[in-house]
Specification:
CATH topology: Non-ribosomal Peptide Synthetase Peptidyl Carrier Protein, Chain A
CATH superfamily: ACP-like
Number of helices: 5
Radius of gyration: 15 Å
Strand content: under 5%
Order of helices and strands: HHHEEHH
Shape: globular
Number of strands: 2
CATH architecture: Orthogonal Bundle
Strand order of the largest sheet: 1-2
Helix content: 40-55%
Length: about 140
Amino acid sequence: MPQAIISEHDILEQLQPLLVEVLGVRPDEIHPHSELVADLGAESIDLLDLTFRIEESFKVRIEANELEREAVRQMPGGVYEKDGYLTDEALVEIRRAAPELDPAKLVTGLRKQDIPALLTVGFFVSMIGRKLTASGEGDPHA
């Protein structure tokens, strides 16, 4: 049986109603570059709710601190955080793991707890696509 192919556009189309429901925003306010906190008004509890709904809707698993774990995995023996701030090495790995995030905001002086405020719609679209591809559900870039 051939694999299903799901595009990033299709993922965004399926994600949009979840964002509307969780954040109470209009569909025309949702764009790949939109930051969930600054642009769409998300709070911590909204991000948890959205994560739960994404898992249900897309049948993928999203782990807590997944972006951090991926960055740490790419820097064996490296230091991720020092005195409450992300190291330059950690910032490089976060930029690599999540190119959808604004690199101008991934700068020296960023704290670990600041990362959720940088998450964009495009970040979630790409993450969902990677997870679907890894699970054999198709190529999100098709």
